[in-house]
Amino acid sequence: MSKGGFTLPGQTGYEELTLRLAKKWGADVIRDSDGTKLSDEILSAGYQIYSTICIVREHNEWARKHMDKLQQTFLCTPPKLSTVEKELEILIMESFFQDQFQVNDTLKAMSYWQVYDRTTNTLLDHSDWVYHQESGTVTIKAPVLWHHYTVSFVAYRIWEEISMYNHTTNNWSSEHLMQIDPRYPENQEYLLKWLRNWCENNPDTDVVRFTSLFYNFVWIWGSDERNRYKFVDWASYDYTVSVLALEAFEKEYGYRLTAEDFINQGKLQVTHMPPPKTKLDYMEFINDFVISFGKQLIDIVHEYGKKAYVFYDDNWVGMEPYNGRFHEFGFDGMIKCVFSGYEARMCCAVDVPIHEIRLHPYLFPVGLGGAPTFMEGGDPTRDAKIYWNNVRRALLREKIDRIGLGGYLSLAEPFPDFLDYIEKVADESRLIRSFHDAGKPYEIKTKVAVLTCWGKTRTWTLSGHFHETYMHDLIHIIEALSGLPIDVSFISFDDVKADRLSEFDVVINAGYAGSAWSGGDVWKDERVVSLLTEWAYHGGTFIGVNQPSAVEGYDSYFRMSHVLGVDQDTGARVCHGKWKFGVADDEGLLPEEGVALVAKENRFLTDGKAKTLLADDQNPVLTVNEFGKGKGIYLSEFIFTLANTRLLYQLIRYVGGEGILGKYMTDNLNTECAYYPESRKLVVINNSEEVQTTKIDTEFGAKAFTILPFDTVFMDL
Amino acid sequence: MSKGGFTLPGQTGYEELTLRLAKKWGADVIRDSDGTKLSDEILSAGYQIYSTICIVREHNEWARKHMDKLQQTFLCTPPKLSTVEKELEILIMESFFQDQFQVNDTLKAMSYWQVYDRTTNTLLDHSDWVYHQESGTVTIKAPVLWHHYTVSFVAYRIWEEISMYNHTTNNWSSEHLMQIDPRYPENQEYLLKWLRNWCENNPDTDVVRFTSLFYNFVWIWGSDERNRYKFVDWASYDYTVSVLALEAFEKEYGYRLTAEDFINQGKLQVTHMPPPKTKLDYMEFINDFVISFGKQLIDIVHEYGKKAYVFYDDNWVGMEPYNGRFHEFGFDGMIKCVFSGYEARMCCAVDVPIHEIRLHPYLFPVGLGGAPTFMEGGDPTRDAKIYWNNVRRALLREKIDRIGLGGYLSLAEPFPDFLDYIEKVADESRLIRSFHDAGKPYEIKTKVAVLTCWGKTRTWTLSGHFHETYMHDLIHIIEALSGLPIDVSFISFDDVKADRLSEFDVVINAGYAGSAWSGGDVWKDERVVSLLTEWAYHGGTFIGVNQPSAVEGYDSYFRMSHVLGVDQDTGARVCHGKWKFGVADDEGLLPEEGVALVAKENRFLTDGKAKTLLADDQNPVLTVNEFGKGKGIYLSEFIFTLANTRLLYQLIRYVGGEGILGKYMTDNLNTECAYYPESRKLVVINNSEEVQTTKIDTEFGAKAFTILPFDTVFMDL
Question: Which residues of A are annotated as catalytic?
C-alpha cells in the first residue's frame, strides 16, 4: 500500500533528489517533462519510465521544408464598413497575431475564401472581389455604401499554440515550434518513420505518453495586446481544417463545407452553442481520421513492447473519449491534468485500462494564473491542499488508478512541508483506490441525467477548465455532482427521443437560452417536450436552472414551464399580472445556512402553484412544483459552493423519495463522506479550511468525527 | 394675473368653502366630480361650470335591456395539459373575475372562438371541439396526449372597469355600472338622444368634460386575489372588440381578423412590443369610428353653446391624440391628469385650443397607491410639493393653459398649509403661462429625436403612468427630457426611411431587445441601418440605451454596434476575448457626482475604440465612440434622477457642439432654469428637498441664487 500508483517527474542533475522523493512518495514511475530528458542514472534506477512525445510538434526541420503541410484554420476579419463610394480594401491579417498565422492563398484554399456583406447576410460572388498577395488585402469592387463586410480566409498556423503560450508567458527564447498536419500522406509517412525511430532510440521507455494527438484546441491570438486571446474554445474543431480535409469530407459526406460553416458570422461554432449538423458530421469525419492514424502510431508503440498513454488536453481535439469508439485507438492509459472534481470524473469516464490524474500545483515557479508557487511568496503546501481538496471528493466516487506530478523537483525541494504533504496525498490516494478495488462505494438509488445538446459526447465537462467556463451554470452543477454519491448520466435530446428517460429519476437542464446546455432550438421539437412531460407526470423530476428549455416562438419561453411552474417574461408579458407568493421551506429542503443564489430578472410563477423556497422580493430563486406524480424544480442559477452542493444533494434525495437526510451523510455541510460496503470502510473529508465536527448515521450506529482543515479520516465500520 | 386658469372642484353642502377657495386660488371655473352634483348656489356664483359626463357609463337601465350590446373583449384561458387519453375539458371562465366578464356564445361570436394546441402552435378545427353552455366548458374531442391547449373566446364586460376599481378599492356598495358600446346603431341613437337631453337639462354648464370617450384601456381581472390584475395595458385596443366591429373591419380592410390577432399566444398585443400590421390596421379602423361618432356628440354640445373638453385617460382608447386627426373631433380642450413631467408634455403636445392638467394630490382620503392623503397620517402639502416639483420643470418648457384639482374640498379644509400652497402653485402657473404667452423659452440648438416603433403615435409616453412603466428605460429618458431646454421629436422607423434624419442631431433608441421602444425585427431592414449609419457618419449622434437596435440573426446583436462601438454577447461569443479598457472622463462629460447607472450583463467593446466613461469592472456602462464626423453613445440603462438627467443634458450639449456647460444652465444639478428671451424672464427651480445655491451664466452676466426646498424663483434680466 505504501508504493505504486504515483508518477514522479524526474530531473536530470538532481538524481539523488529524484530517487529520494520517488521513495518518499512511493513512486513506481518516473516521467520526463516538456523539454527535459532523463539521465541514465534515473533511467536505470528500477522505475518504470514514461516518456513524453508531442507527435505533431518538434519537427521544425521537416516542417520548414513542407510549409504547405502545416496545420491550418479558417479566420475571419472584423467587419469593415463601406463609407465612401469606391472600392473597399480589407487588410485581412490586420487583427491577427502575425507570428501565429500566415495566409494560405493557394488556388485551392482560395476557393474556400468567402466575402460577406454582413449587413444583409449576403455572400459575394468571387468575381466581386480580388486578393492582392503583396499587400495582403482583399478589394471589394463595388461595395454597397454603409454596409459592412468580412473576409473569411484560410491561414496556416506557423507557431504551435502551447509553444507560443510558453514563449510569451515565460519569456522563452527558443525556436518557435510548428505543427505538422498528419492529414497529409507525406507527413504521415514521416511521422510513422519518426516514431519507429524514436522507439528504437528509447529502449528504457515503458510508456509513451502522447501529449497528446494531432489537433490543438482552438486558440486564436490577436495583434493587439489589449485583446490578445481573440478566441479560445477547448473543444472546437477549427484547428483541424485543411483543404485536404475539406475535400475528403466532401467526397465522403456528399456535400461541400464552406468557410461560413466554421466562421458562423464571425461567432465561430463554439461548444457552448448547439452544434449544427455540419459540425457534427465534420467532427465524426475528423474523429474517424484521428482514430485511424492514431491507431497506426499506437500499434508501433506496442510493436516495441511499450505502452501508449495519452494526455487528455492540448492536442486532444478529434479524440472524443466518450463516443463509444475510444477503445479503437488501443491506448493503455489516459492521463488528465485536473484542477476540479469534474475533471477527475472526466478521466474516470474514459474507456481505457489505466486512469491517471496529474495533480496541481505543477512544479513550476508560477501557476497557470500567474501567481507564485515554488518561489518567494508562494505557499505550495496550501495550494496542494486546495487542489487535493477539489479533486478528492470525486476520487471517493470513482476509481483513479494513478496520480502524478509534473515539472521540476528541484523547485519543490526548499519546501519540506510540501514534500510531506504530497507523501500524505499519495498514501491517501492509494488507500482510496484500494477501497474501490474491494467494491463500489454506496450511492443513493435516485438516478440523475444531465440533459444537453452534447449528451455523452461532453461527459463531465463543458469545454475546458472551471475558470474558463465558470459563467455556465452547468459547470457548477457537474462540479457539485462530481463528489456526490449519485449515479449521473449525460444524455442528449436524441436519448430522450430514443425513449431512455425511464432510466432516470431526475433530469437536469441548466444554462442560458440558446446554449448547447439549455438546448436552444431543439426545444421546438414537440417530441422532446411531450416525452419529458409524460415522464415527469409519471414520477420524474425535471430540475431546470437559469433558462431551462427556453426557446422563442411559443406561449411560454420555458417549454417545460408547465412542469416547472415557472417561466420567464422576455418582454411581451410586461403588462401581465404576476402571481404573488410567499416564501417557505416547509419540508426543510434547504441546508441550515450558507445557500447563496441570486435571482434572475423577470422569472415568474405560471399558475401560482409552485412553492417558493427562496426568492428575491417577488422574483423566485428556488421553487418546487408538484406535477402529476413527479415534480419540477426551478433554480435561478447554480454556483458551486459547499452549501449549494448540499442543497442540490438534498433536493435530489427528496425528489427521489430517499429522505432529505439519511445514512452515510454528514450532518455538517463542510464535510462529506463515502462508504464502501464491501470493505466496510468509511472515508470522511473536511472540505473547509477550518476544523469541523460531524456525525454520520450508519447501519452500525452514529459515528462522530472531528476533522482538521482539509483533512481526511478513514474508519473501519 | 391673480385669477384664471384654475379649475376648482365644487362641493355641494360646502358652498361657502367652495367660493372662498375659488377666490383664494383664483379659480375661473368650478367643476363637478365623479358622482357629485353642484348646488344652485355654486352654479349661479358667476364661475364657468365644467360638468363631467362618462358617455358610455351610467346607462344601466338601457344596458340591462340591451345586454347583447355591451362592450366586449377577447379572452384566452391559461393553457391546460392533456394528461389522460380522453377528452379534455376546459372551464373557460375559471381564471377570470366572474363579476367582470360574461361569455358571449352567440353563434356569430363563436365563429371567432379559437382552440389552440399551444405545444405545436396548431389551430384546431371548430369540429374538433364543442362548447357546453350550461357548464361553461369547452371539450376538446381528441387532444394529443401531453400537449397543452387554450380556448380564446369572446366575453361581454359586465362591469365598467373604473366603477369596478372604485367599488373594490374603496368598498363602494352602489350598483355595478355597465358600459355600452356605441358601435351599435341602437346605442348610438340612444346616446345622441341622451346627450341632447342632458344638454337641455344642464343649462348652467359651460364646458362638457368628457371622461372620456368610448373605450377603456385594457384591464383584465382574474378570479384569484393573488393575481387579481391579470393584465393591464393603458394603450391597447382589446376593449374595442365586438363581432360588429370585426365584421365591419373585414368589409373595410378586406381581410378577417381572428382572435389570435389579439390573443397572440396568450401574451396579447401589448403596447411595449412592436405592433403587427393587423394591430395598426385595427387601430386605424377604431380611431376612424371614434372620431366619427365622437364628432357627432361634440357637435351636439356645440349646438347648445357649450364647449367640449376631453379627459385624456380611462376611456381614451381610440382617440389617438397624435396621429394628425385629433382636430377632426372638434374638441375645445384637453384635460390630462399628471404625476410626471412627461404627462404634462403629453397634454401640451395635443393639437387642441386649451390644455389643462389636473394636479395631484386628488382631494381624496387616500392616494392612488393607497397611502393616506387627506386623513390622519397624511401630509398633503408635501405631496403637493412633490407633484408640483415633478410637473413644474415640464411646464417651464411648454405652455399649459390651465391647472386644476379634483375631489372633495371639504377634505382639504383642515389643512391650511395645503390651501396656501395651492394658492402659490396657482400663482406660479399663471406667471409661467404669461412668460410663454410673451414668447418661447430658450432652447439649445441641438435637435433630439426619440426613435421607436410607435413614433409620434406615442408622443411623450409609453403606455400609462410612470409607476406602471418604470421598467422601461425610455420612460426615464423622456421624463428627463420633459424638463430640459431641448427640442424633442418622436419618430418611427418609417420616418427614418422617409429621410427625416437630417432634421435631427441626436437620435435616441432605448429599451430591451424586441420591445417597441428598441424596435425588434424592424432592425432587420437594412435601409434603417444604412440610413442611420450614413447620418451618424456625417455628424449625427446615435444614443443607444440598454439593448438598442438589438435583433438576432446578424454578426452583431446591436445592429448599430459599428456606430456605438459596443455590442452584447448573447452567448455565442462566450469564447471570444473581449477588449480590455480603462475608464476615464477626459472631456468632463459626467456631472461631478451622483450619476448612478448599473451595468448590464455581457456588454463589450466591439473594436476597443470606444471611450469608456463608466464601467462595472470590464462591463461598460457609458461609452462614447467617434464615428466619422458623428458619434455613438452607449448607456447600459437610464434611470431618471437629477444627476442622470444632468448627464443626459451634458451629453446632448456635447455632441451637439454647444459645450458641456453654457449659458442659461445652473451649475448645481439639483436646480434647473428656464429663460424667456422675449420677456427677459428667468425662472430657477429647486428640484430637491434641501436649500440649494446655484449660479447661472446669462447674456447679462452671472446670476446667483439661493432657493428654498422645491421652491421657484423668478427674475427679470
Answer: 314
